[in-house]
Amino acid sequence: MLKLAVNALPVANGLHTVTGAILGYGFCRVASSTLNEIRASIVMNMNMNVIRSLSYKLFEHILSLDLSFHRSGTRNTLYATSRAVRNLEAGLRFMISHLVPTFIEFVMLGGLLSVYCGVKYALDIFITVGIYTCFTKWYSNVIFVLEW
User: Fold this and answer.
1) pLDDT at 41
2) Which of 5, 54, 89, 131 holds its CA 20 to 30 A away from the CA of 65?
């Protein structure tokens, strides 16, 4: 890709244009990696706070249960509780690190489209993505039912 861009440059512009294009490409790659790392560190901090508070509430709830529950409880109860916390952690991690940034980016894109291109284009994008989401959810339910 970069080779084609460099070959398409006119010879009259010379070395400065090629050097600027290569340095600009490198800067964009470094900026992309840096911003991804910053986003990951912010998301991880938020994720740990949510999981910590959720685990604390679960621990308080288990301690507030009747003594007969603790006497009759087996290892399966502890295993199920631990598994539930791990599954909630995985779900929260996915939601915070993937769904929320995608939703924010989608809303920002809609705002930019409505400002620069008009509200019709933004509504078109929102409606198209909404229909696609509904279709995907419906189709995944159909496939799930057919497999079982």
Assistant:
1) 80
2) 89
Question: Residue type for 139, please?
Answer: Y
Structure pTM? 0.48
The domain total for the chain is: 1
- Chain centroid to Cα 35, Å, comes to 14
Q: Which domain holds residue 47?
A: 2-116
Residue 88 makes CB contacts below 8 A (sequence gap 6+) with: 51, 54
Evaluate whether residue 74 is within a structural domain.
Answer: yes
Q: Which residues, 6+ apart, have CB-to-CB distance to 121 below 8 Å?
A: 113, 114
Whether residue 64 has pLDDT greater than 80? yes
Spatial distance between the Cα atoms of 124 and 137, rounded to a whole number of angstroms? 20
Which residues fall within 8 angstroms of residue 62, CB to CB, at 6 or more apart? 81
